[in-house]
Amino acid sequence: MGRPSRHDIDRLLDVAAELVAAGGPSAVTVSAVARAARAPSGSIYHRFPGRSAMLAALWLRTAERFQEGFLAALNADPPARAVQDAARHVVTWSRAHPDETQILLYGPADFDGANWPAEARERLEQGNGRVTSALRGLAGRLGRDEPHDVERLLLATVDLPYATVRRHHRSGEPIPAYAEDLVTGCAAALIAETAGGTTTVPR
């Protein structure tokens, strides 16, 4: 049985994630990753055809790791709780994975998305499609089927939680312990149903 490669793909992508956290996507080059990983440049090119493919692999690995828990939360029952759990997941995951969170605070375009290999672009579309489908399904389970209802859920479960995370990451401050409660409260308020002038927040 052969020995495992000293410079496997996950190790190289971990190094690339550290470079993003320190200097942004532009800091990730083949030579920089090779130097930080103490690997020959040839070992990078053996695993990735070029920088664009490496950046694609880094973005997709990060997004798919995040989406695993996020999709599970969106698909949970009861639906009102699913909204809050999805918002909470954004904050909890971000606190536990600070380097990877820095990646998601950018976007595919910042990782040379226009030059990704076709297979990587297809994976990106599939991942986005799974999230959109889950949001639509959740909207339906909440009895809300208008186009703006999905936008409302996106705001509640992604935009507002990430705004909270981004503010602390950009300032270099740790995400406070109360952040989960803050974003779940906002998420609940956004999907609250109004009846007779009284707003009922799901618990």
Automatic annotation (TrEMBL):
Which keywords are on file for this protein? DNA-binding, Transcription, Transcription regulation
Feature: DNA-binding region? 29-48
Q: Coiled coil located at which positions?
A: none
What InterPro entries has UniProt attached to this entry?
Answer: Homeodomain-like_sf (IPR009057), HTH-type_TetR-like_transc_reg (IPR050109), HTH_TetR (IPR001647)
A single GO molecular function, which one?
transcription cis-regulatory region binding
Instruction: Report the residue ranges that make up the HTH tetR-type domain in this protein.
Output: 6-66
- Keyword Transcription: yes or no? yes
Family matches, as Pfam families: TetR_N
Please indicate which superkingdom the organism of origin belongs to. Answer: Bacteria
Its name, as the record gives it, is Transcriptional regulator, TetR family
Keyword Ribonucleoprotein listed? The answer is no
Originating organism? Streptosporangium canum
